User: Which sequence fits this backbone?
C-alpha cells in the first residue's frame, strides 16, 4: 500500500512559535506538495518540490518555508506562527504518469 | 493559466443509483494528468482515480469511472451504485507535467447519498 505520513494529526501552538510539519512518503516519488485547506477557499498550494533540495513557491508562500533534504521527506516550517495560519495542512506526493497521494492531514490551531 | 472548474457545489443522489460529478479543465500543455479525490468529514484526501492526457481509454477503478473528453476538456467522475458511505466532498485536480508536476484543484462538490 502507498503511504504518505504526516507527523501529527492535531497540533496546537502559540502565536510566535516556530512550527515544523513533517511529511514522509515511501513511494520514491519525485514531487511533493504542501497545501492548506480552509472553508470556502478550497485547497491552496503553499510550496512544492520536484527534487531533493529543490523547491517552488505555490500560491500562498508568505509566512512559510520548506525543506527537502531527502527524497522521502518534505517539511513545512511556519517561521513565526500567527492565528491566521490556523488551518488544515495537507501533504501530497506524486510521480508523472502515476497517482498523487495525500497524508492524513494536520489540523493546526494557533492560539 | 491552468484552471479546474467544478460547477456543482452540492449534489444529491438516491442510494444504488449512479451519479456524475462534473469537472472541466483548462490548460495549453499537451502533457497533464487528471485526478479525483474523496474527502470525508475526517478530512483525509482519498485518491480515487487517475487519467493521463495521452491515455486512450477512460480510467476505471471499481465503482468509479472517469469520463474523459479531451476535446471538451472535461473529466467527469461517474460513481455507479451509490452507497451511503459515498457521502463526502469530491475534488477534481490536474497535474501539469511541464511545471514540476504542480497539482491544482477545483472547489469541490459535496455529494449526499439518500437512503
Assistant:
Amino acid at each position: 500500500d502507498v503511504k504518505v505520513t504526516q507527523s501529527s494529526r492535531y497540533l496546537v501552538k502559540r502565536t510566535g512559535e516556530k512550527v515544523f510539519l513533517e511529511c514522509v512518503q515511501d513511494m520514491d516519488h519525485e514531487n511533493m506538495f504542501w497545501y492548506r485547506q480552509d472553508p470556502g477557499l478550497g485547497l491552496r498550494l503553499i510550496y512544492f518540490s520536484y527534487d531533493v533540495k529543490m523547491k517552488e513557491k505555490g500560491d500562498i508562500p508568505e509566512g512559510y518555508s520548506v525543506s527537502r533534504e531527502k527524497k522521502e521527506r518534505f517539511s513545512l516550517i511556519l517561521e513565526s506562527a500567527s492565528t491566521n495560519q490556523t488551518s488544515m495542512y495537507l501533504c501530497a506526493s506524486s510521480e508523472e504518469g502515476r497517482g498523487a497521494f495525500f497524508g492524513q492531514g494536520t489540523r493546526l490551531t494557533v492560539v | 493559466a491552468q484552471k479546474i472548474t467544478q460547477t456543482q457545489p452540492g449534489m444529491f443522489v438516491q442510494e444504488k443509483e449512479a451519479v456524475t460529478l462534473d469537472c472541466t479543465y483548462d490548460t495549453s500543455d499537451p502533457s497533464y494528468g487528471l485526478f479525483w479525490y474523496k474527502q470525508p468529514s475526517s478530512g483525509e484526501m482519498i485518491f480515487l482515480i487517475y487519467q493521463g492526457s495521452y491515455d486512450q481509454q477512460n480510467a476505471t477503478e471499481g465503482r468509479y469511472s472517469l469520463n474523459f473528453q479531451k476535446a471538451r476538456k472535461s473529466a467527469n467522475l461517474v460513481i455507479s451504485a451509490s452507497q451511503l458511505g459515498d457521502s463526502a466532498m469530491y475534488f477534481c485536480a490536474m497535474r501539469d507535467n511541464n511545471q514540476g508536476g504542480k497539482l491544482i484543484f477545483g472547489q469541490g462538490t459535496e455529494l449526499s447519498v439518500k437512503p
